[in-house]
Amino acid sequence: MLHPQARALLDLIEQRNAPAVHEQTPPEARESYRARRFFTQPDGAAMAEVRELTAPGPRGDIPLRLYRPHGHGAVSGAGAMGAAGEAAAGGSPVLVYFHGGGWVIGDLDTHDALCRDLADQSGCVVVSVDYRMGPEHRFPAAPEDCLAATRWVRDQAGALGVDASRLAVGGDSAGGNLAAVVSQMARDAGDLPIAFQLLIYPATVQRRFTHSNAVNGQGLLLTVDSMRYFHDHYIDDAELDFDWRAAPLLREDLSGLPPALVLVAGYDPLCDEGTAYAQRLTQAGNSATLVNFSRQIHGFITMGKVIEEANEAVSVCAATLRRRLG
User: Fold this and answer.
1) Fewest beta carbons within 10 Å, which of 5, 53, 279, 301?
2) Angle at which helices 141-155 and 174-189 pack, to 10 degrees?
3) pLDDT tens digits, residue range 202-227?
């Protein structure tokens, strides 16, 4: 059954006759997504440090935002730690986070509260990545930016006060897709060890013929029309739908990948492809845990102000990060 709070949110959106994503231009859709956060998102946890950074990328600088939770001392000077214990231990664990939004919308602000809460509850430093998006920057700009940002965090670990041996990647929806892709890219490169991947209702294919896509594709916030809109602004060549950097589930060899938590929602068109990715990770010999919030809709994890289970989902993710990264 659909969670009553999710149903109430969908009813309110319908009553207000809010335009769907696919009915807006990308700039309009981005502004709507930013504005909606004030209604659906709780205030994020207070941090010991929030810092704007940039990382060099193949197409230019990539904006980042670093969140350091209390008890994990801020960096001052050339890598000097505010907390001597953290310095002696090699720094805090770090999560490099890629926001959702269909590779078209979303930014550092739309996922600010989520990143704060993940940092606060996990004890990890979180570095959020404002990667390039379509239609201005089409595939593969996004995965290239995300890989470059992850490498930069690894290379700057000392200056950032983080432990490069306890580096995780994560993201929701399109960001979950990018985290899965970066994990595969890093494995292939052999010089960027990733300790864990957090995949929140990830998009793992571009052509969808699953049961969940058929039954959840209308009336549940993320629709088939919106997904087509996102796809067409991100990918401009149908053949690229089969590129594993766009569709990580299609990769033949999924062995040797980092341990994963895959979180899905039962009323999400992407539920089956996230489930299938978790299954294939396990079949390939990796450690992968699948958690299904069976009464929830796509995008719910950022909606803790109106959907209580969103806060439980954040806690599940944070507890897993804390356990896996020490």
Assistant:
1) 279
2) 60
3) 999 999 999 999 999 999 999 999 99
Q: Is 163 a catalytic residue?
A: no
Structural domain boundaries in the chain: 4-325
Among candidate residues 244, 245, 255, the one with its CA nearest the CA of residue 280: 255
* Polymer length in residues for the chain: 326
Model confidence pLDDT, tens digit, residues 279-303: 999 999 999 999 999 999 999 999 9
Amino acid at 37: R
Q: Is 111 marked active-site?
A: no
Crossing angle between the packed helical segments 112-122 and 308-325, to the nearest 10 degrees = 50
In the structure, what pLDDT confidence band is assigned to residue 256 with cuts at 50, 70 and 90?
very high
The whole-number pLDDT of residue 326 equals 87
22 is catalytic: no
Please give the CATH superfamily to which domain 4-325 belongs. Alpha/Beta hydrolase fold, catalytic domain (3.40.50.1820)
